[in-house]
TrEMBL record:
Residues 409-628, 769-923 form the Penicillin-binding protein transpeptidase domain. GO terms for molecular function: penicillin binding; peptidoglycan L,D-transpeptidase activity. It is a single-pass membrane protein. Keywords: Cell membrane, Cell shape, Cell wall biogenesis/degradation, Membrane, Peptidoglycan synthesis, Transmembrane, Transmembrane helix. GO terms for cellular component: plasma membrane. One of its GO terms (biological process) is regulation of cell shape. Residues 55-353 form the Penicillin-binding protein dimerisation domain. The chain crosses the membrane at residues 12-32. This is Penicillin-binding protein. It is found in: Cell membrane; Membrane. Belongs to the transpeptidase family.
C-alpha cells in the first residue's frame, strides 16, 4: 500500500501537476484580459491607433475697393511624417528616401528651424526680426523650448531644489542667451540622439555613443554625412520634438508640386510614417503690390505662444498675420479649423475615417484702396527714387545736394471728404508670397528683410567709401550692450518697415498751410497782409537777439498767397511771432501763463487737424487707421519741455565729461555717467544730481525759475561733493588740474546751475521755438499718413475724418457682416475767405512761375494745390551721409477737392521731386477725364493701368 502511494507521487506526476497549474494561470490571465478587461484594452488599442488630422481653414480673402483679390488661398500638396513605433524605428531610412525624392524633383524640406549654418559652415540664429529686444527674447525662447535651460540651471545652481528667484532667473536667462549657436547645435545633436544615424550594431556601442558629447558625435557623423545633411535630419527631429508638445500630430516635411505628390503616392508603402495631404497656402496674386497694407503671415514666435494657445492656435503649425491687415484683422481672417479623426496602422497610414469636421473659412476684408492707384503710386515712387540716385549730386540755388542715398520713401493717397485711403505705398517693399510659400524665405532673402550685424557692416563699409565719410562702422551702426548693431541714423533701407505709417519726418514747409490757418483765424494777419521779406529775418530782435534765421526765398513784397507759392520762411517767422505776441505782448510784463498760451497757439490748430495731440488732453493719439502706426507731435510747450527733460541727463553727462557747458567757463572734467563698477554711494550721488536737475526744470512753465539760482546752486554743492568723495576718477582729475577740491566742487555746481537755470529754462520759454515750428522745423515730426490727413482736413473746409483702409467685412457667402462709414473725429473753424486764400496760394505753388512745384505741375490740366517741404534730418546730417527729406503735399481739383496726396523721399533733397509721383497718382485717378481731354500722360502706365483684374481665386498650386 505504501509502495503504491509512493509511486503515485513520483516526479512525473509532480511535473504534470506543475504544468496544469501554469497553464491554469495562463488561461486565467487570458480570460481576465480577453473577457473581463476586454472593453478597457479595446479602448486603449483604439486610442493608440487613432489620430486627429487637423485641416487648416482657408483664411478670408482680402479685396480692393473694386472687388479685385489682393490676398487669397491656393491648395498645395504637403508631405507629412507621423510618429509611430514602426516609423520611428526606420526613421533615418525613411528620411533618406524622402530627401532623395524631394531632391530629384527639385523640392526642398520645410525648414523653419532658426538655428542656421552659413556658406562658411558657421552657426547662427535667424529669428526673422531686426530689433535687438526681440532677437534676445526669441533667442532665449528657442533654447528653453529645446530644454537647454534645465542643463544650464543644473550647472549654475547645482544644489538648488526650489524655484529660482527673480535675480537667479535673470542670471540663467543671460547664460542661456550667451550660449553660442555652435554649442546649441552640439546640444541638439546629443538631445535628439542623432548617434542613431551611425546605426550602432550593439548595446555596448549604443552606450558608447550615449556617453559622448554632441561635438564628438558630430565629428563621427561628418565622416559619412555633410554638415548640411546632418542639419536636415535635425530639422525634422526638431519639428517632431516641437510638435510632440501638442500630442501625436503629423509633422509637415515639405510643400510640393502636384507632380511630385504622385511619386510619393506610388512609394508610400516603402515610407513608414510618410503621407500626402493638401493644405491651403496664402497667395498674393499681385505680388508686392500693396504689401505695406496687406502685411504678411508667418509662424507664431516663442514670445507670443501662450497668448495664441489661449485662443486655440496650434503654435507649432499655425500661421498668423505678422503685419498690416493680415495682423490687424487676424481674428476676422483666420477661420475655424476642421479635421478628421482616423485610425492608422503601425506605419502611421490611415486605415479608416471615423469622424470629419469641415473647416470654416475666415471672413473677407474689403479695403478702400484702388489697385490701379496703388500700382501707380508704388511704381512712380520707385522710379523717382532710382532716378534721383542716378543723378547722384546736383547743384542748385541751395548748394550741392547728394542724392545717392535716396533709397527710401512713401506715398499716401486719401479721399478728402471721407478719410478713405486709396493708396499707401512704402519703398523698398516686399513680396508677401515669400513668407507664405513654404521654403521661399531662404537664408539669403531673410538677410535682406532682417539684417544682422554682417549686413550692417557690409553696408556701412560701402556707404562710408561711397559718401566719402570720416566715420567708422561703429559710428554709423553702433553696437548695443548685447553686441547687436543698431541703425541709429536710419540709413539702411528696410523693406518690412512701413515708411508711410511709421516713418516720422519733419514736415518742412508743408506745415505752412497750417501756420496760415492759425494766423488767419487768430486775426494776426489777413489774406492781404503784406511784408517786405529779406534773406535774413531781422525783426523781433527782442526774441531772436542777434540771431538772424536765413530765408532762402527771394526777397520781395510778399502776401499770404505768394508766401505759400515761394515758401517764404521770413513771412511765417513773422506770422508766428505775431501770434505769440497776441497772448504775450511783452517779454518783460507778460505772465508765465500768457507766454505758455502764446507758445501753444500753433499746436492748438495743429492738434485739430491730426498733427499730434494735446499731451494734457483726452484726445486719442492716432489717425484711426486700422494697421499699426506711429503718431508724431507738433511743437507745444509741454511736449518740448518733456523732451528736453528726457534728454537733459544725456546732455548733462556729456558737458560734464567734456569739462565745459555751452558758452560757459571750463570746469574739471566730471564723471556723471553711471558705470557698472560704481560703488552704491557714487551711483546714488550721480542719480541725485540728475534728479535735482529734472525737479528744477519741471517747474518751468509754472514760475520763472531764474530766481532759484542761489538756492539751487547751494543745494548742488553738497551733491557734487558726494561725487568727489566717492569717485577716485574725479579725485584724480581734480589733483591733475592742480586745483583744490572745494574750488572744483563749487565751480562744477555753479556751472550746472547756470546751465539749468539760465540756458535750458530760457530755451524752454523762448518764442524762437514757435517760429521754427511755423516753418515745420524744430521738434515737429509726422508720418506721411498724418500729413495727408491734415491737408485733407484743411482743404475740405475743416472736417477731420478718421483715416481708414477697410470698407466692410463679408462672410464666405458674400453677406455683409460689418460696414465702415466715414467717421468725423473733429472740426476746425476756417472761414471761407481764409480757406480760399490758402488754396489759391497752394495753387500758385503748383502753377506760378516762382511756384516751388510749378516745374512739374504747371501744365497739368486739372487744377490743383500743393506745397513742397525740405526738412533737415539734423544739423550735422552731411557727416553721416544724410540729406534733407523731400516732402510734398497736394490736392485736386482746386475748387472741389476730391483727393489729397503726400509723398516723402528720404535723403531726397527737395520736396518738388515728389510732385512727379503725385502727378502719376492724379493721372490714374482722373484717367477718364484726362482721356476725354486727349491728354498725353507723363507715364505710360497711368491712363491704362497694366494690372489685370483678379476676381476669382485660383484653387491649385
Amino acid at each position: 500500500m505504501n509502495k503504491k502511494k509512493n509511486k503515485f507521487f513520483n516526479r512525473y506526476t509532480a511535473l504534470i501537476s506543475t504544468m496544469f497549474i501554469i497553464f491554469g494561470v495562463i488561461l486565467g490571465k487570458l480570460i481576465y484580459l480577453q473577457v473581463y478587461k476586454y472593453a478597457d484594452y479595446k479602448d486603449m488599442s483604439n486610442n493608440r491607433s487613432r489620430r486627429f488630422v487637423a485641416e487648416n481653414a482657408p483664411r478670408g480673402i482680402i479685396y480692393d475697393e473694386h472687388g479685385n483679390i489682393l490676398a487669397t488661398n491656393v491648395q498645395s500638396y504637403t508631405i507629412t511624417f507621423t510618429s509611430t513605433d514602426e516609423s520611428n524605428a526606420s526613421f533615418y531610412d525613411t528620411m533618406n528616401k524622402t530627401f532623395k525624392i524631394l531632391k530629384d524633383n527639385g523640392e526642398k524640406i520645410e525648414d523653419d528651424m532658426q538655428l542656421k549654418i552659413d556658406a562658411n559652415k558657421s552657426y547662427y540664429f535667424d529669428f526673422n526680426v531686426s530689433d535687438a529686444e526681440s532677437i534676445k527674447a526669441l533667442n532665449i525662447r528657442f533654447k528653453k523650448d529645446r530644454g537647454l535651460d534645465d542643463k544650464l540651471k543644473k550647472k549654475l545652481f547645482p544644489k538648488k531644489t526650489s524655484d529660482l528667484t527673480s535675480s537667479e532667473q535673470n542670471q540663467l536667462d543671460e547664460a542661456i542667451y550667451k550660449y553660442s549657436p555652435e554649442d546649441t547645435f552640439y546640444y541638439m545633436i546629443e538631445s535628439y540622439n542623432m548617434y542613431e544615424m551611425l546605426k550602432p550594431a550593439s548595446k555596448d556601442e549604443t552606450k558608447k555613443y550615449q556617453a559622448m558629447s554632441g561635438k564628438e558625435i558630430l565629428a563621427l557623423l561628418l565622416k559619412s554625412y555633410s554638415l548640411e545633411d546632418v542639419r536636415k535630419y535635425m530639422v525634422v527631429k526638431d519639428a517632431i520634438k516641437m510638435q510632440s508638445f501638442k500630442g501625436y500630430k503629423p509633422v509637415t516635411l515639405a510643400t510640393i508640386k502636384k507632380q511630385t505628390s504622385f511619386i510619393f503616392y506610388q512609394r508610400l508603402n516603402d515610407l513608414p510614417g510618410i503621407d500626402v495631404s493638401t493644405e491651403p497656402v496664402r497667395s498674393y496674386p499681385y505680388g508686392s503690390v500693396a504689401s505695406a497694407i496687406l502685411g504678411y503671415i508667418g509662424s507664431i514666435d516663442g514670445g507670443t505662444q501662450a497668448r495664441y494657445e489661449e485662443k486655440g492656435y496650434d503654435v507649432s503649425t499655425d500661421k498668423i498675420g505678422k503685419a498690416g491687415i493680415e495682423s490687424a484683422f487676424e481674428s476676422i481672417l483666420k477661420g475655424t479649423k476642421g479635421g478628421t479623426t482616423v485610425k492608422v496602422n503601425s506605419k502611421g497610414r490611415k486605415t479608416e475615417e471615423l469622424f470629419k469636421l469641415e473647416p470654416s473659412p475666415g471672413m473677407n476684408v474689403h479695403l478702400t484702396i484702388d489697385k490701379n492707384i496703388q500700382y501707380s503710386a508704388e511704381r512712380s515712387l520707385q522710379e523717382e527714387l532710382q532716378d534721383l540716385q542716378k543723378q547722384k549730386v546736383i547743384n542748385d540755388s541751395t548748394g550741392s545736394v547728394d542724392l545717392t542715398n535716396a533709397t527710401r520713401g512713401a506715398v499716401v493717397v486719401q479721399e478728402v471728404k471721407t478719410g478713405r485711403i486709396l493708396a499707401l505705398a512704402s519703398y523698398p517693399n516686399f513680396d508677401p508670397n515669400i513668407f507664405s510659400t513654404p521654403g521661399a524665405l531662404t537664408s539669403e532673402i531673410s538677410k535682406q528683410y532682417f539684417p544682422r550685424n554682417e549686413q550692417y557692416e557690409a553696408f556701412a563699409s560701402d556707404f562710408i567709401l561711397r559718401q566719402g565719410l570720416n566715420k567708422t562702422v561703429d559710428d554709423l551702426f553702433p553696437k548695443n550692450k548685447d553686441g547687436i548693431r543698431e541703425d541709429r541714423y536710419d540709413l539702411y533701407p528696410k523693406p518690412l518697415y512701413d515708411y508711410a505709417t511709421f516713418g516720422l519726418t519733419p514736415p518742412g514747409s508743408t506745415f505752412k498751410p497750417l501756420t496760415s490757418v492759425a494766423a488767419l483765424q487768430e486775426g494776426v494777419i489777413t489774406p492781404g497782409y503784406t511784408i517786405q521779406t529779406k534773406k535774413y529775418y531781422d525783426l523781433n530782435t527782442d526774441i531772436f537777439g542777434d540771431t538772424k534765421p536765413e530765408d532762402e526765398a527771394t526777397p520781395a513784397m510778399t502776401d499770404l498767397k505768394r508766401a505759400l507759392a515761394v515758401s517764404s520762411n521770413y513771412y511765417y517767422y513773422n506770422a508766428a511771432i505775431r501770434m505769440y505776441k497776441k497772448y504775450a505782448p511783452s517779454e518783460k510784463d507778460s505772465t508765465i501763463a500768457q507766454k505758455v498760451q502764446g507758445l501753444d497757439m500753433l499746436a492748438k490748430y495743429a492738434w485739430q487737424t491730426g498733427l499730434g495731440s494735446d499731451p494734457n488732453g483726452t484726445q486719442k493719439a492716432g489717425t484711426g487707421i486700422e494697421i499699426p502706426e506711429n503718431f508724431g507731435q507738433v511743437y507745444n510747450f509741454q511736449s518740448f519741455k518733456n523732451n528736453t527733460i528726457n534728454l537733459i541727463n544725456f546732455n548733462l553727462v556729456g558737458y560734464a565729461e567734456n569739462g565745459a557747458f555751452p558758452g560757459r567757463q571750463s570746469i574739471v572734467k566730471m564723471d556723471l555717467q553711471l558705470n557698472s563698477d560704481d560703488s552704491d554711494k557714487l551711483a546714488d550721488a550721480k542719480k541725485k544730481i540728475k534728479q535735482m536737475v529734472k525737479d528744477e526744470l519741471n517747474q518751468v512753465g509754472t514760475k520763472d525759475i531764474r530766481g532759484d539760482f542761489d538756492n539751487f546752486y547751494k543745494a548742488l554743492v553738497p551733491a557734487v561733493q558726494e561725487i568727489y568723495d566717492n569717485s577716485p576718477t574725479y579725485q584724480q582729475r581734480v589733483k591733475d588740474a592742480n586745483v583744490s577740491a572745494k574750488s572744483a566742487v563749487n565751480s562744477a555746481a555753479r556751472e550746472i546751475a547756470n546751465y539749468v537755470i539760465y540756458s535750458v529754462s530760457t530755451e524752454l520759454m523762448s518764442a524762437t521755438q514757435i517760429a521754427y515750428g511755423a516753418i515745420g522745423q524744430g521738434m515737429d515730426t509726422f508720418t506721411p499718413l498724418q500729413l495727408v490727413g491734415y491737408i485733407s482736413t484743411v482743404v475740405n473746409g475743416g472736417t477731420r475724418y478718421k483715416a481708414h483702409l477697410v470698407d466692410k467685412i463679408t462672410d464666405k457667402d458674400g453677406k455683409v457682416v460689418e460696414e465702415f462709414k466715414p467717421e468725423v473725429l473733429n472740426k476746425i473753424d476756417i472761414s471761407p475767405e481764409n480757406l480760399a486764400a490758402i488754396k489759391l496760394g497752394m495753387n500758385m505753388a503748383n502753377t506760378a512761375d516762382a511756384g516751388t512745384a510749378s516745374s512739374v505741375m504747371n501744365k497739368f490740366p486739372i487744377s490743383s494745390g500743393g506745397k513742397t517741404g525740405t526738412a533737415t534730418f539734423r544739423q550735422d546730417q552731411s557727416e553721416y551721409g544724410r540729406e534733407a527729406f523731400g516732402v510734398y503735399v497736394t490736392f485736386a481739383p482746386l475748387d472741389d477737392p476730391q483727393i489729397a496726396v503726400c509723398t516723402v523721399l528720404y535723403d531726397g533733397g527737395h520736396g518738388y521731386f515728389g510732385a512727379n509721383i503725385a502727378k502719376a497718382v492724379y493721372e490714374t485717378y482722373f484717367r477718364d477725364q484726362l482721356k476725354a481731354m486727349n491728354y498725353a500722360p507723363q507715364y505710360d502706365y497711368t491712363l491704362n493701368p497694366p494690372l489685370a483684374d483678379v476676381k476669382v481665386s485660383p484653387t491649385t498650386k
